[in-house]
Predict the 3D structure of the following.
Amino acid sequence: MDTDELAQRLARLAERTAPPPREELAQVVLERGRTQRRQRAAVTSLVAAVAAVVVAAPLLLDGPPGGHRAADEHAVATSIAGVDVLAGPTRGSLAGDAAFLEAVRRLPWTSEDMSGSDVPDAPLDSRRVVFAGDVPGGRWVLVAGENTARPANRDPAAQTDLGALSDTAIAWFAGPPGATPGQLELQSLPRGVDAGRPAALADAGTGALVVVAAPGDTVEVSLRPEVAADGEVGRSWQELAAPDGVAVTTTPPVSSPYAGALRYRVTRQGAEVVTTGPDGRWNESSTAPDVPVDWLRPAPPASPADVVLSSSVVQVLSMLGLSPEETAVDVVWAGDVPAPYTRPARVHLFSVTLPSGATYTDTSLSLDMGGGAVAGTSCGSGIRPAGLPVPEQTFALRCDATDFSDDSGVISSLVLVAPAGATSARALDLDGGVLAEFPLTDGVAVVPFPERAASVQTMTADGSVLASTRPLAFADLGD
Amino acid sequence: MDAAGFEDFVSREQPALLRLAVLLAGDRGHAEDLVQTALLKTYRHWGRITRSGEPTAYVRRVLVTTHTSWRRRLSTTEQVMETLPDRADPAAAPEDDEELRSALLTLPPRMRAAVVLRFYADLSELQTAQLMGCSVSTVNTQTARGLGRLRSLLAPPVLVPEEGA
């Protein structure tokens, strides 16, 4: 079979087997998009609770009453094109200090670990200071200039970063309170940006947050996702005062090195411009919190790859914006799966019980690469409603182990972890057809992943079905 | 956001996306899942995408990266609301189409994507690499391996003389 014949056969196969287009698909997607947006929108009754924990946020509390101004995409005509959030005179408390502004405009856009041909270094004559001001715990500056790192291939289809094609690049600088220009350090990697899109920087250690939007924009902040007892995820939003389009505020500092749960949202003429997380200023003083965990099954023999467990737990807590004291962490299972390498990969399955009682389950697949290096990825995650205790739950994972090289082969394993009463299991396809059956040992099995398996049933010794579950997918925190 | 523009986009692009998706995913249900997931992700950033680039390229990239992600699961959190029958009508299926479909399904997702993008979508190695977010050499390797595997699977059976014949 030559490649021309393959191309013809693929075209025929695609033509013959593709599902017919659905007239209502666009409406289905639009409705789902709106539903997700509503779920992320303000839960007004929770705004007060959020405001209460923002103990050091006078600006936060100065804003109009919280609550999302619903954006009806059909009703509100918004022109985002043509709005340059980085244009205009310098904003911020130091905007009147001409000597300071000129000095920071000249600061180099490189540092020891931020340089290279793909990092913009705006020519001096193209630079302008967008924001310069004192913020809680420091002094920050945002400079914009010409994007010198635009890719040679300007085909939008080739870009992985939509800002790469922009004419504009930005760089954030930060320093201690009262810092001179010389004390300011480059904070985030300079990069091409969409000039219509707001820019923001947060400091996990001090809780400072600056959002630079366009004058007249509405800026809101949400501290973390809120997972209700039924597993639904939402966020509470609080509007910030944003004179001249710039919001400067403080959020509660977090114990983790990075404010992973923080989000800001900007709306313009009633329509959402962006909802995203700010660039992060690493909390250098942070030490990873020591999160206590309970092991529901005996731990496997120790492996260097086990270091991934604690960092994975910390990362999940950071994403959820919760402290160890607010949660309970159970390691449901840990063990090895085959990998295309000289040693197997280590899998950890852990479940975090949230304040609502719902659980956030996450996984890590890690490989001891030798020489102290450990590479890691995930076998999926999920959110489950409150109710069934974690030890009584059943989990199915698809773990795709590689050697972490681009050209690696993949060994896919099905990891099933069930209560000890389950003695066997079977993998089913989408039509309910049985693809494979296998025994469980202490409720656990690691078997080659049956191609096209869509769900797994566990059974007792007498053949009764105990539980049916799908392999973990992605937990959707609405981001 | 421009909902009307998005509806026009979906109407225009849906058939081609479904054809690409069915080759990547292997069956109708997952193809619809894949297309809907890609469109939903595209819609979330619709304003930015239409301002910054060509949405067709964006949604196609999302489709491929969603499929080839190491972490993609058979069931995602963004499920289709209904699915068509899992398989095409076997009675109407030329035998070699089914053979090719089965052979494609034996390829790992990234290898399958490389083969489909190179030989169905007729993309260059560079374009395929950019779509998959990997190097050209990776595409070359994955394509060669995939092609080799398909050739071995789709080769005409070798007739072995019976013993004593």
About this structure: The two ends of chain B are 74 Å apart (CA to CA).
